[in-house]
Design a protein that fits this description.
GO molecular function: FAD binding; oxidoreductase activity
Family: Belongs to the oxygen-dependent FAD-linked oxidoreductase family.
CATH class of the largest domain: Alpha Beta
Protein name: Fad binding domain-containing protein
Strand content: 15-25%
CATH topology of the largest domain: Vanillyl-alcohol Oxidase, Chain A, domain 3
Structural class: alpha+beta
Helix content: 25-40%
CATH architecture of the largest domain: 3-Layer(aba) Sandwich
Order of helices and strands: EEEEHEHHEEHEEEHEEHHEEHEHEHHH
Pfam families: BBE (PF08031), FAD_binding_4 (PF01565)
Distance between the termini: 30 Å
Shape: globular
Organism: Fusarium pseudocircinatum
Largest sheet: 7 strands, antiparallel
Number of strands: 16
Length: about 400
């Protein structure tokens, strides 16, 4: 045995600081594992770990299907799944992990297993929410969904000037809970053209324009500056979000520093205070103007319909996520930590909580995986990875507490 530490990598979209614990190790590059098999009769899709989220869109749509996905095109489709996989369609279809049927898994001792509800069910439970801890997935099979409304969605985006932030946040709060088909993103950033902090609002409705306008009437009645409002097919949603800004999070070899939080409560007063604080921060630290805050408002009806005990994913009552993105810098890091604390106070959870795929790396195990999940996860870790070979991506212990 050589005992060389390693990471299995797909699209290399991970951010957590725990990845830095790998020293003098190897990367097992799975990016060329591009298996893609769609069975239209069985309504299943099988992919390899090199297939990215964006590479799924067009083939599925062209075959008459869709699936719940993330909001960025560049992560590995399987990699997203192993953490649970949140996204704009989770109100209708649930998490990406909820679509998972089976995986081909290589364990720490080199055994190749077919893992599903009926084959190694405990391991199947664990990989849906904590999957990076239990092996290398070389293929995964999912359920896919026939298109509804011909695959069309309604998309609307608006600019919200500072003088109307308070009004917008109050309306957002009043719209909670969002209908299953309606999701929103809100980008709080610095506009170098206008030289001021702005809110850039995105709304997507999985259904007809008529129904979308009914649900969006409180926002439409604000008569905000509209940057786009149109019907488009679901496979074109990500590339048309915020004028293609999703591509910027896919640039390789870029230092990024994320502080994130999960929320189940909407709080207009908190968001307004955070936006004001961000504007002040931009004024004080001009070099910080490339940083941003992103709110993801994702409905959770289908996600929460699955029992909490059914998978390792810890929080199915979450309705929103906030992500502070910046370069590595001490002032920016302190600000990210401060924003995380501020939003946590009204999040509806008793402490900071985060989604494992979004974790910064400084959170506790309980904040990432949930205290109620950890005893079973640790017991399974002891069985399947007692030497903690898979330990660099928000790693689990083999005992708890």
């Amino acid at each position: 045995m050589h005992n060389i530490p390693f990471l299995a990598t797909g699209a290399r979209h991970g951010y957590t600081t725990t990845l830095g614990d790998l020293r003098n190790g190897l990367a097992i590059d799975l990016s060329h594992f591009k298996q893609f098999e769609l069975d239209a009769d069985a309504k299943t899709l099988t992919v390899g770990p090199g297939v990215t989220v964006g590479e799924v869109f067009d083939p599925l749509f062209n075959a008459g299907f869709d699936i719940q996905t993330g909001s960025a095109p560049c992560p590995s489709f399987i990699g997203v799944t192993l953490g649970g996989g949140v996204g704009r369609f989770q109100g209708v279809y649930g998490l990406l992990a909820d679509a998972l049927i089976s995986v081909r898994l290589i364990t720490a001792d080199g055994e190749v297993l077919q893992v599903s509800r009926t084959s190694y069910p405990d391991l199947f439970w664990a990989i849906r929410g904590a999957g990076a801890n239990f092996g290398v997935v070389t293929s995964a099979t999912y359920s896919v969904h026939p298109l509804t409304n011909n695959g069309d969605m309604f998309l609307a985006e608006f600019l919200v000037p500072p003088r109307r932030w308070s009004e917008y946040f109050r309306i957002m709060e009043s719209m909670s809970p969002l209908p299953a088909e309606l999701s929103s993103l809100l980008l709080n950033s610095f506009n170098t053209t206008t030289n001021q902090t702005q809110l850039f609002a995105h709304w997507a409705y999985k259904g007809s324009e008529t129904e979308a306008r009914k649900h969006l009437s409180p926002i439409l009645n604000m008569n905000l500056t509209t940057t786009q409002m149109r019907v488009l097919p679901w496979n074109k949603l990500v590339e048309n979000t915020f004028a293609g800004a999703a591509v910027t999070v896919c640039e390789p070899n870029t230092n990024r520093n994320l502080y994130t939080l999960s929320m189940k409560n909407y709080s207009a007063s908190t968001w307004e205070a955070v936006a004001s604080k961000l504007a002040t921060f931009y004024a004080r630290y001009p070099h910080a103007r490339s940083s941003s805050l992103l709110y993801e408002f994702f409905p959770n009806q289908a996600m929460s319909a699955i029992t909490l005990e059914g998978t390792a994913f810890p929080r199915r009552d979450t309705t929103a996520y906030i992500i502070h993105t910046s370069e590595t810098d001490n002032a920016l890091a302190r600000f990210g930590e401060e924003i995380r604390r501020d939003v946590a106070a009204t999040s509806g959870y008793p402490e900071i909580t985060t989604f494992v795929n979004y974790a910064h790396g400084d959170e506790t195990l309980e904040q990432i995986y949930g205290k109620e999940k950890l005893p079973r996860l640790a017991a399974l870790k002891k069985i399947w990875d007692p030497k903690e070979v898979f330990s660099f991506n928000n790693g689990l212990p083999t005992t708890y507490p």
